[in-house]
Design brief:
Layout (H helix, E strand, L loop, with lengths): L3 H15 L4 H8 L3 H8 L7 H10 L4 H5 L7 H14 L1 H11 L1
């Protein structure tokens, strides 16, 4: 099973982007330092209960929605994420080309 901090961080990033918030803007709204939100999204730390509550309110989601990470294990989700990265990373394209050719 994937690390809960990693999955939660990815899910928060996903929900943040859905609302079109930058890390800086979301951090400002929920009252934490941008570097702390970065650490949460990068699975370096787990948010405090107060921060989780503010995230739920700001991202307009329920605890079930926030902790629902099952879709992140689907190949469709992974494919989407890989394609997003490939669009912006020429070195990654070259590496993938070498691997599959």
């Amino acid at each position: 099973m994937d690390d809960i901090k990693k999955l939660l961080g990815q899910r928060i990033r996903e929900l943040r982007k859905r609302k079109k918030y930058t890390q800086e803007k979301l951090a400002e709204i929920i009252g934490i330092e941008p570097r702390n939100l970065l650490k949460i999204e990068n699975a370096q730390t787990f948010p405090r209960a107060q921060t989780l509550q503010k995230l739920l309110e700001t991202l307009e989601c329920t605890p079930n929605e926030l902790f629902n990470c099952e879709h992140m294990n689907s190949t469709d989700y992974m494919r989407k994420k890989v394609l997003e990265r490939i669009k912006t990373d020429d070195e990654l394209v070259k590496l993938i080309y070498k691997i599959i050719m």
